[in-house]
Amino acid sequence: MKAMGTDPRILSLAAEVAISPEQNVPVILLKLKEIINNTPFGSSELKKVKQDIYCYDLIRYCLLVLSQDCSRIQGGWTTISQLTQILSHCCVGLEPGEDAEEFYNELLPSAAENFLVLGRQLQTCFINAAKGEEKDALLHFFEIVTDSLFWLLGGHVQLIQNVLRSDHFLHLLQTDNVQVGSTVMTMLQNILQISSGDLLRIEGKTLHSILDEVVFKLLSTPSPVIRSTATRLLLLMAESHQEILILLRLSACYKGLRSLLNKQEPGTEFSQELRQLIGLLSPKVYQEVEEQKLHQAACLIQAYWKGFQTRKRLKKLPSAVITLQRSFRSKRTKMLLKLSRQKEEEDRRLQLQLQRQRAMRLSRELRLSMLEIVHPGQVEKHNREIEEKSALIIQKHWRGYRERKNFCQQRPSLVEYKAAVTLQRAALKFLAKCRKKKKLFAPWQGLRELTDACRVELKQQVDDYIRRHPGSEVSGVINRELHSQAQERLQHYFMGRALEERAQQHREALTARINTNIEQLMKAPSLKEAEGKEPELFLSRSRPVAAKAKQAHLNTLKHIQAPWWKKLGEEARDEIDIPKDELSIELGTLFIGGTKPP
């Protein structure tokens, strides 16, 4: 979406880029530099110009041009260096709006990578150049590219990690050329001054490579410019991060670094920075750094522990206050309730006393009035009758109290007796079933041994039976048929006996259930006195019984509600056949059986 109120210069430039051939686009994009320079720095107008440049994709055109081969671009490195300046100035201070994610995650990392690639190409051209003028020009272009990169990193600090992790930056740092190496290390020093914390966020291998290259340039390069820049850079890294200082002091890779630094020529321009670096690497300073580090760690641990304890107490404080308030309020409520009960008891006691006094006064007045009415000769008789009635009332109340007390004392024993009877009945049934099963599944124990006299007697009985019941001669086929029929009948008998036993057990279970229901109904109170779940005792689990009870209830209800003249001459009968359609009464509060619980 294009921004409203676009600068006409940007609009005409974007149109010219769109209609121009590809080889003329870099030269046309250089006009952006004039537009940016003519706009006041830091003003809202400059921000609007940058937003218009981004909206019309002129920044992407600059990136595409920088990614092309420099030999195909008009103006060569001059055009490229100016485009890097334009790109860095456009990206810094730009507010992308809706496309912020694409701008920060794709466009900016791509621009930084393109700057590093251009730096490597300029480094290669500078090393391969033969003429001094050409080298000076290439070095100037290289400095412009590095300055543009530093400007971009200053506006977007999150790109520093991408630059430090890049292989192109490491190759730029590893150059042997004095001028290029000095420029790169100066840029690294400026970057670390902006944000030194990003140096520890990169991988350990990359960090070791950077440290190795800086130490190598410090110790092996004869140029004082490189050595001074490397010394300042190493001193900045050691002072900013204790981890790097410990690494330089204890790592086997940098063993003997302090002795080699002591051998450097004194009296140089960077001798002060060198002495500071040697002092940092000395054991005393290292010990102080370690103690300081331990002190900071102890302070941090104490701070975390004290904060934890304080937060814990603060968390418990509301609950403690709430508990205290709850206990105080409950105690106060109990005291108020106790006082109110005492007051109610006193009021009740006073009312009872007043009622008794009134009753005594009324009774005395009644007696006096009766004595006035009764004839003087009948007073003794009247008093005797009153005493007899009083004695009868007292005896009646006393006997009722005594019987109720005896009944309450005997009730647990009655319940225990009924429970014992029920348990005995169930135990006897269980033992009878066990004996029946033992008889049914008892193993065959064989026949008893017969004596000679028993054998003679049995033989005589058999002979007498055969003599009285002579049998007809039957063939073997008929005998086998009779034997198979006998076996079938015997098998049928045994199979039927098991079914009969199961049916008998079912009948006994139903009988026991009916007896239990009858006992529960006998013990249950009346429907008027029933409370809670006691009405459930009147429910029946048998649907036929429930249906019969419901029909009888409906018949009785209809008979009771019938007018008296319909009942004249009616004989008592068991059932009254009344169709259900004629009944229109709400039965929600009556007994309805046969409903099984879900």
UniProtKB/TrEMBL annotation:
Domain of life: Eukaryota
Gene3D superfamilies the UniProt entry points to: 1.20.5.190
Pfam families linked to this entry: IQ
CDD domains named among the record's database cross-references: IQCD
InterPro entries: ARM-type_fold (IPR016024), IQ_motif_EF-hand-BS (IPR000048), IQCB1 (IPR028765), P-loop_NTPase (IPR027417)
Coiled-coil intervals, chain numbering: none
UniProt cross-references to SMART domains, sorted A to Z: IQ
Protein name: IQ calmodulin-binding motif-containing protein 1 isoform X1
Biological classification of the source: Eukaryota, Metazoa, Chordata, Craniata, Vertebrata
Gene name of this polypeptide: IQCB1
